[in-house]
Amino acid sequence: MAFVLAVLFMPGSVYGDTQRPWPIITFTCDKAKNEVKLKNEVKWGDAGKNFPFNAEQGTYSPWALVAFEDRANRRLLSEKAQLNLSCQLGGSNYRFNIRPKMFNTNFKAKCGDRLSVIISIFRNDVLLLENRAMERFCNGNAPVLRGVKIKGAKGSIKLYEVPRSRFY
Predict the structure, then answer these.
(1) 8 within some domain
(2) Is residue 6 one of the residues assigned to a domain?
(3) Domain that holds residue 69
């Protein structure tokens, strides 16, 4: 895992920290099982706000991928970083490019305090999955991509989607 992020700022919510979901991305490269996994989950309130993110243990905060800029009465979000994670399995290098998925660039507007990620997956230099949002919308019951698993022997991708109502 060549890219290490430190969470310097965890934004507060317009709904209050005790009611808000905090996204957590977990990356696991298991050579013994010959599989790589990317997991999308949330923790609520203080459990999420104070989650001990640790790149060496494979846990990342999507909030560490965005920058904030205050302009008058608005707080704007923009992409500041990407995660580039890789796993060597069975002679192939699986590379995950992870970018923030901002539902609204105005943090104080509808869905502005919600964040997910967009992923692209490569096997060696071959694109397997391009710009897939783990969560497409910030409301409604659209499916949420809860995880991705790749078995190294076949290189096939398994996507785990659930209705939004089962994710949150």
Answers:
(1) no
(2) no
(3) 17-167
Residue whose token pair is 């499916």: 143
Is residue 153 in a domain?
Answer: yes
pTM for the predicted model, two decimal places: 0.85
Q: Say how many domains are in the chain.
A: 1
Mean per-residue pLDDT pooled into runs of 10, the chain (168 residues): 37 55 96 96 93 97 96 93 95 96 94 94 95 92 95 87 90
- Rounded Cα–Cα distance for residues 48 and 77 (Å): 20
Residue 58, φ and ψ in degrees, nearest 5? 85, 25
In the Cβ-directed half-sphere of 47, how many Cα atoms lie within 13 Å? 7
The pLDDT value recorded for residue 42 is 94
Q: Is residue 66 part of a domain?
A: yes
Q: How far apart are CA 54 and CA 43, in angstroms?
A: 15
What is the structure's pLDDT at 17? 52
